[in-house]
Amino acid sequence: MGTANEKVIEWSGSLSIEQAESLKEELSNALAENKNVVLNLSKVEDVDTTTIQLILAAQKEAKKRGGSFKVDKSISESTAKFLNLLNLPIQETENSAM
Fold it and tell me: pTM to 2 decimals?
């Protein structure tokens, strides 16, 4: 669920360009309202490059605002491989330990 200073976003399914606008809006709102954001992808089946671009942009925006943006390590093997290929940091969070 996150801490008082942290917003957890949970995505699921197959994420592609078709969902990009709603995903972008959700990330933008979370970053505007919270200093620290955690993205939980544990229920995501696969992602495309558009989704990865959104994640990279969110990380950059969080850093610019003096906050943090983490991808929870509780993800599928295929998603982990894709994120690792792009050198995206996958971190253990409070939610990963549960």
Answer: 0.81
What confidence score (pLDDT) does residue 39 get? 93
List of residues 6+ apart from 95 with CB closer than 8 A: 1, 2, 8, 38, 40, 72, 74
Question: How do residues 7-22 score in pLDDT, each as one tens digit?
Answer: 999 999 999 999 999 9
11 Cβ contact list (under 8 Å, min separation 6):
23, 39, 40, 41, 43, 44
Name 36's Cβ contacts closer than 8 Å, sequence gap at least 6.
3, 5, 6, 7, 62, 67, 68, 69, 70
Best CA proximity match to 45, nearest among 86, 75, 18, 84: 75
How high is the pLDDT of residue 36? Answer: 93
